[in-house]
Amino acid sequence: MAKRIEIVIVDDNLGLLESLELYFREKGYEVAIADNGEAGLALIQARKPAVAIVDLRLPGMSGLALLKALKVEGIDCRTVVITAYQEMETTVQAIKLGAFDYLHKPIDIDALDAVIDKALSDIPETESIKVVDEGFKENTIVGRSHELKEIFKLIGLLSEVKTTVLIVGESGTGKELVARAIHYYSSSAGEPFIALNCSAIVENLIESELFGHEQGSFTGASETKKGKLEIAGGGTLFLDEISEIPLHLQAKLLRFIQEREFERVGGNQKIKFNARIIAATNRDLAQMVERGEFREDLYFRLKVFEISIPPLRKRKDDIPLLVEYLIKKINRTTGKRIQRISKAAITRFMEHDWPGNIRELENVLTRAVVLSKDDCLQESCVVNLLRRPPVDNPASFQLKSLSEMEAQHIAHVLDCCHGNISRAARILGITRPTLRNKIKSLDISSGDS
Ligand SMILES: Nc1ncnc2c1ncn2[C@@H]1O[C@H](COP(=O)(O)OP(=O)(O)OP(=O)(O)O)[C@@H](O)[C@H]1O
Ligand SMILES: [Mg+2]
Fold first, then answer.
1. pLDDT at residue 446 above 90?
2. Which CATH fold topology does 397-441 show?
3. Is-contact 305 179, C-beta < 8 A?
4. Which of 72, 116, 249, 433 is the most buried (most CB within 10 A)?
């Protein structure tokens, strides 16, 4: 039989103490009680319960002193403090000392239930992976899959030869990161890395952005300006989203790649081009060539060397390492200090398909880190972020009551968990007893196991 969840209750009001003991015991919890602070602390130290309910005003060791002792010893137990209404000051102190929540006397049993449910659904899962905040290096390509190891080798080879490279891959797979790596590992690392996103500039400005212009060459060209080709010097010109370059400019681009020299718009002086071109796309250029949307000759010029970055769903082995790396990165940018991630959360990540690839993973992790209440990233923090809202056909959209929605959602989760109550409760963020109650009251059929 699974170990029952333990609750320790510390209160000097014996009547209240006994009725709470009875109440929680009947709900299926393992309950231990103490009527003073010292005994309460000893009990919590010895039994390490999931939750402790602690009265703040106790004879001898106060509730606050007890909380302080738990904090000093690093005992991981959710404490719900009970306080008299006037004690705002102590309540604030209690929360500062790490209390999970507080309730006022006289106790409203429904409110207590809700707080305990919340505390239990938030209990750190025991199995977790430690995030070691050492050796963080920005712009690192992280991964250990076979596919990524092959890419590491290519980066090594390409850093030695200054050939044109085409990087293809879905959005968010790390195309720009790979382009930068090729540049920074090469002997031209000291030269500029210039990125131009071909989809982000107005069509009639691309030419001037790329080639630069001479003063007065068109309305608004008040002075001579260097284009990206010139600024790139002997470094790298990264042409991102190359598929978006208009057809008429493709011819010009091709010509300059072949001749390795160009002229500024409105100028006639030939300028040498010494940089390496790395182009990237998330579209199927071969198909665009077939449809006449991209020049075949330019396509072959660019794909002298092609690197294809597989989507994350095809290299899920990379997920645990990426998660660890990205959490370190996010800790730095958000100022949070997530130190562990539960294995159950990693399992969730492994099950997800990541249509937005590593960028989506980074976004989900950022939200989870911000929402996380302690230093361990729990499964409960990530499930909702991974669930996609069902795409409702507006025509079939029905207005439903909250309880209908709740019943439907619980049934769906139970279904996905093959009727496994513990798993479903964990996903729903409620305790098993609460889930059982809901199944009964909402009349949900479940394959209870
Ligand atoms: N293997 C990896 N290790 C660590 N971080 C990564 C990795 N791959 C991608 N990233 C991070 O994911 C984010 C997206 O990467 P990047 O911008 O290079 O993708 P992209 O393929 O250029 O996407 P898009 O097509 O949307 O422009 C960046 O923050 C990048 O640092
Ligand atoms: Mg990009």
1. no
2. Arc Repressor Mutant, subunit A (1.10.10)
3. no
4. 116
Same-fold call for 6-123 versus 397-441 = no
Q: Is the omega angle on the peptide bond into residue 49 within 30 degrees of 0, that is, cis?
A: no
Check: CB of residue 282 under 8 Å from CB of residue 241.
yes
The model's pLDDT over 61-118, given as tens digits with 9 standing for 90+, comes to 999 999 999 988 878 788 999 987 666 677 778 887 888 888 888 889 999 999 998 8
Which atom of ligand 1 is closest in space to residue 148's alpha carbon? Answer: 1
**Interatomic CA distance for residues 356 and 166, integer angstroms:** 21
Q: Which CATH number fits domain 317-386: 1.10.1040.10, 3.40.50.150, 1.10.8.60, 3.90.1150.10?
A: 1.10.8.60
Digit-coded pLDDT (tens) for 320-338: 999 999 999 999 888 888 9
Is the confidence at residue 394, as pLDDT, over 50?
A: no
Q: Are 392 and 408 in contact (CB under 8 A)?
A: no
Nearest to 164 by CA among 73, 68, 254: 254
Architecture category of domain 6-123 in CATH: 3-Layer(aba) Sandwich (3.40)
152, two tokens: 């590491």
Contact 168, 305 (CB under 8 A): no
CA-nearest of 114, 108, 55, 110 to 83 is: 55
311 lines ligand 1 (CB under 6 A): no
Q: Domain extents for the chain?
A: 6-123, 146-312, 317-386, 397-441
| The token pair that represents 445 in the structure block | 């059929």
The CATH superfamily assigned to 146-312 is P-loop containing nucleotide triphosphate hydrolases (3.40.50.300)
3-class DSSP state for residue 194? strand
Neighbour count for residue 244 (Cβ, 10 Å): 16
Q: Whose CA is nearest to atom 30 of ligand 1?
A: 174
Tell which atom from ligand 1 comes closest to the C-alpha of 172: 23
Our mutation pick for probing the ligand 1 site, out of 165, 359, 364, counting the most ligand atoms within 8 A of Cβ, is 359
Q: In whole angstroms, what is the distance from residue 108 CA to residue 85 CA?
A: 13
Q: Are 312 and 359 contacting, i.e. CB atoms less than 8 angstroms apart?
A: no
The secondary structure of residue 377, as a DSSP letter, is: E
Q: Is the dihedral of CA 412, 417, 418, 419 positive or negative?
A: negative
Ligand nearest to the CA of 167: 1
User: Using a 6 Å cutoff on CB, does residue 282 contact ligand 1?
Assistant: yes
d(CA 94, CA 115): 16
Judge if pTM exceeds 0.85: no
